[in-house]
Amino acid sequence: MKSEVAQAIDELRRQFPDAVIDVKEDGQGGAHIVIDPVTLSAKFHPRATWLGAHIPALYPYADIYPVFIDHGIRRADGAQFVAPITPNATFAGRAALQISRRNPQAQQFAQTAVTKFLKVLDFLEKS
Amino acid sequence: MSCTINIAEKHYDQLLAHLFPGDDDEHGAVLRAGLCTDGNQVRLLVREVIPAREGTDYVPGRTGYRALHPTFIHKHITSCRNDRLVYLAVHNHHSDEHVGFSRIDLSSHEQGYPALLDIAEGMPVGALVFGKRSVEADIWMPGGKRLALAECRIVGRTIRRIGSAPFRGEDAFNSSFDRQVRMFGLQGQARLATAKVAVLGLGGVGSIVAEYLARLGVGRILLVDPDHIEDTNLSRVVGSTLEDVEHSTRKTEIAARHIREIRRDSPAVEIADDVAKIDVAQRLRACDFLFLAADSMRARLVFNALVHQYLIPGVQLGAKISAGPRDELQDAMSAVRQVRPGLGCLWCNQLIDPTQLAIESKTDSERMAQAYGVNEPNPSVIAMNGVSAAHAVNEFLFDFLGLRKPGGPVEYRHFHYLEDSAMRVVPRQDAGCSECGQGPLSRFGKGDAVPLPCIQ
């Protein structure tokens, strides 16, 4: 695993201290990771999910894209998710919702895995 | 034994302005330089110029006329050690096309440099002396070797060369180059013969580039491409045959075979692998010029890093055809983008897409499942590829042989065929760029001190 990817995972462990982070190396220096559990707000049901994504070997140049959450997450108000949140995905053998949010500022500001996941969670809350 | 030095034109101009302000006096500076060792080759890459202030950093010497103040020396040699860079002490002589160290200079090196090597903890240290159009080096390597300078390359839009005396070309003449020697002389032909150039991507554009370089007499041509030929390539890949399609021949093998049909000295080196892999990218560190004719984002990322980290001039080229929803032709363009150390960076000009880098890192099945599709082939036509290739190799010829005046702008050239127009774009530069900028974390001029952005 490349040192940048390992460092990103260490930072995620500090950001999500109550979660277990499952790491599977991709053979090129990157890794597929699952952070479990992650707690969502009361806007969602159930509130517990997992977060998953591929951190590519070329991180931080490469975006972490897309990000996945548990397929069973629903909006508490009953409204349907719309693109870029799409159903019927899988990640790391888990049925998932796929959240395809790009990072448009990667070339201006160095991105981190922590900020990426937090931005996706923020997007989810505001969706 | 000798070494080479690469310095970006802006740094050379900065250094010369400090050393030769018009007072006919002696001045000093320190250069912080990256190191590239490739086999027996040693190349120093100037990352930063630090002028020594008169009377503070550059003071009357005990034995020589002037000397760098010990405090100034200590500050910069320890910072070089910490950053794994090479410390170079610089001064000038009152000379033009010829320069050399005086006996007092060399004596001071012998007195002081063993101690500097100890402080440098495994990094070389050395000295450069400049004339107005010349330079000589005395580089002390860990382990005891001392290197003089073979040549210093000033890398701007054009590539200039200076040494301790004017270069003399070889007299050997190969009649197959007769017509071009009549344009740029035997010395120009000799420079091409000693050049080591890499072509990244041997598809429709790269295969033409490889042929042109071979016919020009370039000394070594590194051919990098992991792919095999398919029947859809026949319309564009120079040198490919129906038999190659039947045997699924590697593109590098096709290019090398085609070159052997032209040149008995076989300058081709086949690297049938992905440039984004670390062991491939490492082989390109000591190249003299890079042609990027591959269309992946990660090839762009590695190419861009090689240019700025190892101060290697390069060009990114290609052609793009896009169609609208009803298959109507919307745009057809050829692009030639000169990239020079510190100038024309593909990252801060947003020509390397982070999302596409992420998508490229996935397997075909992952891309399908995540609805990005398996990479659809792009439209491509040999005539448009030929414009990119010819323009890029022509620019290489004029720039590499220094046939144009130095100091010209680095530009991107876009040829739009539907509008029948040609655009010239001066690329932006972001001072804080992680690739070409001058910030402490940028990879500019760091050589082997930092890893290249590669996959394992």
Describe, in short, the structure shown.
Chain A is α+β, with helices and mostly antiparallel strands and 127 residues long. Chain A is built from two helices and eight strands.
Topology:
The complex is a heterodimer of chains A (127) and B (456).
Chain A lengths: L2 H13 L4 E6 L5 E9 L4 E2 L2 E8 L11 E4 L3 E2 L9 E7 L2 E6 L13 H14 L1
Antiparallel strand pairs in A: 1-2, 2-4, 3-6, 4-5, 5-8, 7-8
Chain B lengths: L1 E7 H11 L8 E11 L2 E11 L6 E3 L5 E3 L1 H14 L2 E7 L10 H18 L4 E7 L2 E7 L5 E10 L3 E4 L15 H16 L2 E5 L5 H11 L3 E5 L17 H6 L3 H10 L7 E4 L6 H4 L7 E4 L4 H14 L3 E10 L5 E11 L14 H7 L3 H6 L12 H19 L11 E5 L4 E5 L31
Parallel strand pairs in B: 1-3, 1-9, 6-7, 11-12, 11-14, 12-13, 14-15
Antiparallel strand pairs in B: 2-3, 2-6, 4-5, 7-8, 8-9, 9-10, 15-16, 16-17, 17-18
Helix pairs in contact in B: 5-7, 5-12
Number of domains of chain B: 2
Mean pLDDT of chain B: 94
* Main beta-sheet strand count, sense and barrel state of chain B: 8 strands, mixed
Low-pLDDT windows of residues of chain A: none
| Principal-axis shape of chain A | globular
Question: Can you tell me the CATH class of the largest domain in chain B?
Answer: Alpha Beta
Number of helices of chain A: 2
Helical residue percent band of chain A: 10-25%
Distance between the termini of chain B: 34 Å
- What pair of chains forms the biggest interface? A-B, 27 and 24 residues
Radius of gyration of chain B, in Å, reads 24 Å
